[in-house]
Design brief:
Length: 289
C-alpha cells in the first residue's frame, strides 16, 4: 500500500512539474560575434552629457515637394553637425516603386512601422525628438522653416542624464559592420529605457521627382540619410531600468551588409527612448570606419 501511495505521489509531482512554463529566451537580432572579432572596445568615461536631437524625415521618390524640404533638413544638419541626428524614412504611397524610372525601393519594415504610427502621414514631414508623441509630426514647409527649426533648437537645450558614444567598424572582407554603443549615465534616471540602433546610408544616386527642377524627374538625385534597416527592434531593445549615476552599459552588434548597400557610406544612428512616454532621451550618429 505504501509503495502504491509513493508511486501516485511521484506521478502527481511529475504532472505538477509539467505545468511550470518557463519564459521563452528572447534572442536579440544581430548579436556581436565576439569569438570572431574579439572583445568589445572600452570607452572613456564622460563627465557631462550633451543632448542631440533626432529628426525623422518622411519622404518618397515620387514626392515632388520633398527635395526642397530635404534641402532645408540637410542645410541645418550641416550647420549643427553631430548635434542633429537625421534619418530619412521613405514610406507611404509616394515611396512605392513603380516600373521604369522609379523602380528602386527604399522602404523598410521599420520605416513602415514608423509611418503607421503617424496615423495618416504626410510627405514631406518630420518627427522631431518624438515631441508630442508618436503620432505628432510637422510639415516641412520650405516657406516657413521656423516652424520646425525652433523645435529643433529648443530640444538642443534640453538636459539629458546620459552621454552616448559609439564605434562602427566596417569589415569589407566579411561584408559586415560591427557596432558598439556606450550609454554612460552622468545622472540617475527614473524609469526604463530602450536602445534603438538603425543603419542609414548616404550618397545614394537614384531618381527623384522634384517640382522645382526641369524636367521634374531628376535621374541623378543624391539621397542622404536613407534608412536601410533596424539593427535592434524598431522600437528598441530593453536596456536598463532606473539606472544610477555612474552606470555605464555597452551594447554591441554585428550586422550583415546587404549587397545593395555601400558599406563605406553607412552611418549608425542610435538613440535612447522611454518606452512609456516615447520621449527621446538622447541620440547619436556614428560614421562607419
Amino acid at each position: 500500500m505504501k509503495n502504491i501511495l509513493l508511486f501516485l505521489g511521484l506521478v502527481g509531482l511529475t504532472f505538477h512539474s509539467c505545468d511550470v512554463i518557463e519564459e521563452p529566451v528572447r534572442i536579440e537580432k544581430n548579436p556581436y560575434l565576439e569569438n570572431t572579432y574579439g572583445p568589445a572596445p572600452s570607452f572613456n568615461v564622460p563627465t557631462e552629457a550633451t543632448k542631440n536631437v533626432l529628426v525623422e524625415e518622411y519622404t518618397g521618390h515620387l514626392c515632388g515637394f520633398c527635395p526642397e524640404a530635404t534641402a532645408l533638413v540637410l542645410a541645418l544638419d550641416e550647420t549643427l553637425g553631430n548635434r542633429m541626428v537625421t534619418v530619412s524614412i521613405h514610406a507611404g504611397t509616394l515611396a512605392e516603386p513603380s516600373p521604369g524610372l522609379f523602380s528602386s525601393d527604399y522602404r523598410t519594415e521599420a520605416g513602415d512601422l514608423y509611418w503607421t504610427q503617424l496615423g495618416g502621414g504626410l510627405n514631406p514631414s518630420a518627427r522631431i525628438d518624438r515631441v508630442g508623441g508618436l503620432t505628432n509630426f510637422y510639415y516641412l514647409d520650405p516657406g516657413n522653416p521656423d516652424s520646425w527649426q525652433s523645435i529643433i533648437n529648443s530640444q538642443l537645450n534640453v538636459s539629458t542624464p546620459v552621454a552616448l558614444q559609439g564605434i562602427a567598424d566596417y569589415i569589407p572582407n566579411d561584408n559586415k559592420i560591427n557596432i558598439h554603443i556606450n550609454s554612460h549615465f552622468v545622472e540617475s534616471y527614473s524609469g526604463s529605457l530602450n536602445l534603438v540602433v538603425l543603419l542609414v546610408e548616404n550618397h545614394i544616386i537614384s531618381p527623384q521627382e522634384d517640382y522645382t527642377a526641369t524636367p521634374s524627374e531628376v535621374e541623378d538625385y543624391e539621397h542622404e540619410h536613407v534608412l536601410r534597416t533596424a539593427v535592434t527592434e524598431p522600437m528598441g531593445n530593453a536596456l536598463i531600468t532606473s539606472p544610477n549615476g555612474g552606470t555605464s552599459i555597452t551594447k554591441s552588434f554585428t550586422v550583415p551588409v546587404s549587397s545593395t548597400w555601400n558599406g563605406q557610406n553607412l552611418v549608425v544612428v542610435a538613440y535612447l527612448l522611454d518606452p512609456v512616454t516615447n520621449e527621446i532621451i538622447n541620440a547619436l550618429e556614428v560614421y562607419a570606419q
